[in-house]
């Protein structure tokens, strides 16, 4: 599904910040939003999810946001917040995942089947009886992913899904994202881990001061020292080390090292 | 190089009330704390160990524990009674006072509670704001900050208190790359003893003189970063620094081990031993 943004504007009361996107198209596949804290990444994500009242237009395959969401938000857009505490409210981990499915009036056995398989996929089965508030922050992050994955929406919006995850969980999430990409889903996520961004190799959208400063593949951005500096970002660690080693073509990720 | 602190854990077992499983199992370690990195997968007991040292277990979260913990030869409870400990939580928003209208007041909150003079408070707030890139936000409301900015604010509020031991639980998880770089550069120069749990393995390898590896509540190993990464080279649960993985792929070692810092990688590539 294609998401088309036109003349998007938003500002917070009492803050000098304003989001300003004259035109932008999110194509199916993964687009990663990167940029400094306060660049407008989360605000853009919230606008696409219809969580803030913006000026301008956001269309989904030609249909405007309100009409699109009116057909049932849960199966259209899966959104996870930066702070998982903002969205967990059920009394058990199991109920948290089942909740969305129940809202869709799915048959009970289907709810159970999907809930169990999703918890299993994210390694959360052993916590299914626990209150989400008793989970560690990383398990809460995984649980928020489970709640949206179970619903299988057309569009995924993830605000820092890798935050607080340990190494094995990050590998797992990377694999899940690759599956979503292969299924043709439209995924927009925010990420501060430049090595991860380079490894995924998908399109990046660099934001600064509420605007898009670069749009394209990672190498074009990370090789451009001027752009990096202007946007207050650093290249991946592997790239920094490759440059220090005077490699003819510095590697962006480990996979590129011979 | 800075102040060191002796820590002695002896046979420490700990479980949270209502949970049978031990969160820490027979933890025994005698060590010097300068810059300690705490690593290991989720549920390893990293946060628990930090809470335990900070004295918040029992007081805030009910637990059962056995064994002894001493800092500089003093029982932990006695040490805490006369010293200042600084704990930065994994979820930074949860530790802000919620009573401050501005970032300045939030940083100053703990200092007012310590009864410091106005001029000293002003001085300390400005100094930590500068260290953590918060100068431009001092007049803003904490609620208007982004996740990474709130994280820097939580750290600033704690280090303004000049703690005798700083405990940091994944303090950079929401920071942008430059913010993280500035923070670790500050940490490297800081003369306060630190224990930091973090998944930023490259930064830990650059900053820490020691790593403690926890898995499933048990201490697997404590030692120099290079020794740790060589020992856990094939352990998929433990992340390795990029320098280490590059050294491994390029087949070059430094001083008998794969490099763990940028400096070691340069040396290993230039005149180290090749596999």
From TrEMBL, chain A:
Keywords: ATP-binding, Cell membrane, Membrane, Nucleotide-binding, Translocase, Transport
A Gene Ontology term for the protein's cellular component: ATP-binding cassette (ABC) transporter complex
Gene3D superfamilies tied to this protein: P-loop containing nucleotide triphosphate hydrolases
Keyword tRNA-binding: no
InterPro entries to which the protein is assigned, alphabetical: AAA+_ATPase, ABC_transporter-like_ATP-bd, ABC_transpr_CbiO/EcfA_su, ECF_ABC_transporter_ATP-bd, P-loop_NTPase
ABC transporter domain span: 3-234
Family from the record: Belongs to the ABC transporter superfamily.
Name by which UniProt lists this protein: ABC transporter domain-containing protein
Origin species: Lactobacillus equicursoris DSM 19284 = JCM 14600 = CIP 110162
TrEMBL record, chain B:
GO molecular function, one term: ATP hydrolysis activity
KW ATP-binding (keyword) present: yes
PROSITE patterns: ABC_TRANSPORTER_1, ABC_TRANSPORTER_2
Subcellular location: Cell membrane
This protein's GO CC annotations: ATP-binding cassette (ABC) transporter complex
Membrane topology: Peripheral membrane protein
CDD domains (UniProt xref): ABC_cobalt_CbiO_domain1
Pfam families linked: ABC_tran (PF00005)
Keywords: ATP-binding, Cell membrane, Membrane, Nucleotide-binding, Translocase, Transport
ABC transporter domain ranges (all copies): 9-241
Family membership noted in the UniProt record: Belongs to the ABC transporter superfamily.
Name used for this protein in its record: ABC transporter domain-containing protein
Gene source species: Lactobacillus equicursoris DSM 19284 = JCM 14600 = CIP 110162
Organism lineage string: Bacteria, Bacillati, Bacillota, Bacilli, Lactobacillales
């Amino acid at each position: 599904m294609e998401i088309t943004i036109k003349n998007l504007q938003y500002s917070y009361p009492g803050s000098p910040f304003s989001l300003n996107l004259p035109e932008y198209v999110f194509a199916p596949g993964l687009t990663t939003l990167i940029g400094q804290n306060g660049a407008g990444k989360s605000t853009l994500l919230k606008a696409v999810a219809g969580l803030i009242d913006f000026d301008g237009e956001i269309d989904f395959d030609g249909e405007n946001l309100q009409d699109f969401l009116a057909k049932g938000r849960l199966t259209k857009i899966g959104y996870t917040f930066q702070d998982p505490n903002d969205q967990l409210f059920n009394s058990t981990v199991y109920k948290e995942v089942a909740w969305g499915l129940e809202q869709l009036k799915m048959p009970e056995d289907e709810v159970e089947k999907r809930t169990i398989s999703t918890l299993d996929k994210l390694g959360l089965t052993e916590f299914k009886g626990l209150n989400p508030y008793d989970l560690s922050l990383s398990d809460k992050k995984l649980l928020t992913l489970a709640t949206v994955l179970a619903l299988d929406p057309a569009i995924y919006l993830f605000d820092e899904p890798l935050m607080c995850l340990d190494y094995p969980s990050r590998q797992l999430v990377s694999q899940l994202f690759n599956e979503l990409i292969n299924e043709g889903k439209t995924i927009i996520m925010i990420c501060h881990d430049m090595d991860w961004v380079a490894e995924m190799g998908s399109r990046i959208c660099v934001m600064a001061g509420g605007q898009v400063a670069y749009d394209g593949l990672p190498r074009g951005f990370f090789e451009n020292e001027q752009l990096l500096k202007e946007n207050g970002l650093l290249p991946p660690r592997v790239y920094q080390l490759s440059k220090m080693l005077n490699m003819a073509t510095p590697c962006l990720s480990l996979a590129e090292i011979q | 190089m800075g102040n060191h602190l002796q820590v002695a854990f002896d046979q420490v077992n700990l479980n949270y009330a209502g949970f049978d499983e031990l969160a820490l199992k027979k933890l025994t370690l005698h060590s010097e704390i300068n810059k300690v990195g705490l690593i290991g997968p989720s549920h390893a007991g990293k946060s628990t160990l930090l809470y335990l040292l900070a004295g918040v277990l029992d007081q805030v979260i009910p637990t059962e524990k056995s064994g002894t913990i001493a800092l500089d030869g003093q029982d932990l409870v006695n040490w805490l009674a006369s010293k200042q400990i600084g704990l930065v939580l994994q979820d930074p928003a949860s530790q802000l006072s919620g009573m401050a209208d501005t970032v300045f007041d939030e940083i100053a909150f703990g200092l007012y509670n310590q009864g410091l003079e106005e001029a000293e408070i002003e001085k300390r707030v400005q100094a930590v704001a500068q260290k953590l890139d918060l100068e431009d936000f001092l007049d803003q409301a904490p609620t208007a900050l982004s996740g990474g900015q709130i994280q820097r604010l939580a750290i600033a509020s704690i280090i303004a208190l000049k703690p005798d031991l700083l405990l940091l639980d994944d303090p950079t998880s929401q920071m942008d790359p430059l913010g993280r770089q500035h923070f670790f550069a500050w940490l490297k120069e800081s003369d306060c003893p630190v224990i930091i749990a973090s998944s930023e393995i490259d930064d830990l390898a650059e900053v820490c003189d020691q790593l403690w590896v926890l898995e499933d509540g048990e201490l697997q190993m404590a030692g120099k970063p290079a020794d740790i990464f060589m020992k856990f080279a094939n352990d998929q649960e433990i992340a390795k620094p990029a320098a280490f993985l590059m050294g491994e792929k390029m087949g070059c070692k430094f001083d008998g081990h794969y490099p763990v810092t940028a400096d070691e990688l340069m040396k290993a590539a230039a005149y180290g031993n090749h596999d």
